[in-house]
Amino acid sequence: MSNEIVQVQRSRIENIGALPTIPGTLKRISAIIEKPRVTLDEISHFVANDPALTTKVLKMVNSAAYGFPGRISSVSHAIMLLGLNVVKGLLLGISVFEIMEKVMSGLWNHSLACAVASRMIAEKKGVKDPEEISIAGLLHDLGKVILILEYQTQYETAMQETLQKGITIYEAERTLFSDTHSNVGMWLAEKWRFPKNLVEVIAYHHNPMLSKTAPMETAIVHFSDILIRARGVGFAGDPFAPALSPAVFDMLNLSEKDIKDVLARVEESIDATEDLAL
Amino acid sequence: MPRIIVGNLVAGMKLLKPVTDKNGMILLSEGTVLTDKWIERIQDMAIEAVYIDGPAQKTIPKEEELARLDERFKHVEDLPNMKLLKKLIKEHIEGLYVQ
After folding, report:
1. Average pLDDT, chain A
2. Nearest C-alpha of chain B: how many angstroms from A115?
3. DSSP states of B22-42 as a string?
4. Does the distance separating the beta carbons of A232 and B72 come in below 8 Å?
5. Which residues in chain A are closer than 8 Å to B2, comparing Cβ atoms?
6. Is the C-alpha dihedral spanning A272, A275, A277, B5 positive or negative?
7. How much is the average pLDDT of A265-273?
8. Is A263–B88 a contact, with Cβ atoms under 8 angstroms apart?
9. Which of A28, A83, A176, A182 has its CA 20 to 30 A from that of A57?
10. How far apart are CA A203 and CA B29, in angstroms?
């Protein structure tokens, strides 16, 4: 194995439509989402033309486990209730992780559980728009999908290194790639014109104290990510619980009961989300 | 009475409820023991999940679950707050096995 660091090129990642490994659905969704002023109509129309996608979106927004209001019968209805950003996030989540489940089995479950935990902590902390934090939990590992699709061999090496050296996948990425999944995810989130808070959560979920505009949201997803991995739900690249930022722990100030409530909610959602396997 | 998604079916599982198509027509009756051939057909019908007879999927013994927990925490146990986190998850897992 060579010691050369893989240079991840931002321009190449951003030009996602031209990446040969990216499947058509994601390219089409990407093209819609990156439009500066994409309208409700355009999104509804796009989704309506893809019955499989419609079914998945509606299944997701109506899932009690996922915490959305329920009984949403159309995509336009979902956009009205949840907001364009949440629906954009869902569309991406669905299309990205459908691919991911084929390459890294378990990442979809990890992400869903993270969305459930993030939402519940957001509610406990009284953060407004818990749906948006839910989406942030769902999409925080977006960069892994793209890295693994684009640099499959090297990413497999990274995953092996986690086992050999007893390190996390994030640490392995840092030694093997010029940029980690959090940077790659951030580039795409910016390209797709996600709200600033969502961009920050994706960018800083491993360094939550760097977040300037969304410290609470980032802290919540950081905590959820680690909690879910510590609980052993799904798979995110390595089999270890990463260290929790002490500052985040203090900031969230969750009681033991709070944490157990979150674990219980996640447990309930695991059975229910079997249905959401895409 | 677990509902199992089609991708996770294995031969030998027994149907708790009949498998029907979207019009309610019965394709396989309850009690059918699945074979690879049946599973393949179910997949071809674009059915998502079926009900399988048997205990809920607490398939991993508690000791194994707890051993895995130790394994996940082995590099971080002494870091701040990780002992507490591990303790809470351990209690949570133990709670799942209480009948």
Report:
1. 87
2. 18
3. TT--EEE-TTPBP-HHHHHHH
4. yes
5. 271
6. positive
7. 74
8. yes
9. A182
10. 51
Cα-based torsion angle of the residue sequence B38, B44, B50, B55 in order, rounded to the nearest 10 degrees: 50
CA distance A92 to A273: 18
Binary contact (B5, A277; C-beta < 8 A): yes
Which parts of chain B fold into alpha helices (H)?
A: 36-44, 62-73, 82-96
Q: Which residues of A touch B73 (CB under 8 A)?
A: 230, 240-241
Tokens of A60: 């997701």
CB A213 within 8 A of CB A197: yes
Q: Please tell me the predicted confidence (pLDDT) of residue B2.
A: 67
Closest listed residue to residue A132, CA positions, set A72, A200, A65 = A200
Which residues of chain A have a CB within 8 Å of the CB of B64?
none
The pair of structure tokens assigned to A41 is 């109509």
Predicted confidence at residue A3, as pLDDT, reads 63
Kindly identify which residue of chain A lies nearest to residue B79, measuring between CA atoms: A243
CA angle, A132 as apex, A38 and A83 as ends, to 5°? 40
Residues of chain B whose C-beta is under 8 A from some C-beta in A?
A: 2-5, 7, 48-49, 65, 68-69, 71-76, 79-82, 84-86, 88-89, 91-92, 96
Beta-carbon separation of A249 and B68 below 8 A? no
For residues A157 and A1, the answer to whether their CB atoms sit within 8 Å is yes
Rounded to whole angstroms, what are the CA distances from A207 to A66, A244, A248, B83?
Answer: 26, 10, 10, 21
ipTM of this predicted complex? Answer: 0.86
Tell me whether residues A244 and B84 touch, CB distance under 8 A.
Answer: no
Q: Which residues of B touch A274 (CB under 8 A)?
A: 3-5, 49
A79-109 per-position pLDDT tens digit: 777 888 888 888 888 888 777 777 788 898 8
* Spatial contact of B52 and B2, defined as CB atoms under 8 Å apart: yes
